Amino acid sequence: HKAFPFENFAKGLTSYSNYYSEQAQAVDFAKEKLNLKKGLATYWNAKPADLFNKSETRVYTCLPSGYADYYIVGNEQWFYSSGNDTSNLFNFILLGINEDTATLYNYYGKPLEIVQFKSYNVLLYNDFIFKPSRAPFFVQQNKN
Q: How many beta carbons lie within 10 A of that of residue 134, not counting itself?
């Protein structure tokens, strides 16, 4: 029987460790232009954006129906702030350019700014936090 092909295994690890998803690139591109804090995206956009961005910007999973926190695939503490705690300030949402914005705009209003990178948009909002009501609470109201 054949020996394990270590040279191919090493090439695979190298390409995996160098992987840079388009979602992650979009977050990093926007971070160069905007003061991004923490962000939200639906599951299939949040995971690669959070895991592979190089700016260490957190992107957490949200429910597409209302863009509310979805801590079933994360941690409830990533979302909620209590008292004067500002460690969980969010201010952006990552969307594919073909994703519907009607529900998003219904809950969050129109963004302050949009940065497009390839097939993704990063939508900038005023800082917001989550309260256990599962709805965003804006620290400063959006003016749109």
A: 13
DSSP state for residue 4 in the 8-state scheme? P
Written as one letter, the residue type at 106 is N
Q: Which of 130, 111, 107 is nearest to 121 (CA)?
A: 111
User: Whole-angstrom Cα distance, residue 46 to residue 62?
Assistant: 8
Structure-token pair, residue 102: 């009607």
Tokens of 94: 């990552």
The per-residue pLDDT for range 40-88, each reduced to its tens digit, is 999 999 999 999 999 999 999 988 877 777 777 778 778 877 667 778 8
The alpha carbon of 53 is separated from its chain's Cα centroid by a whole number of angstroms, namely 10
Contact 77, 86 (CB under 8 A): no
Can you tell me which residue has the tokens 């949200």? 62
Smallest CA-to-CA distance from 90 within 56, 115, 126 is with: 126
- 7 contact partners, CB below 8 Å, separation of at least 6: none
Q: Model pTM?
A: 0.81
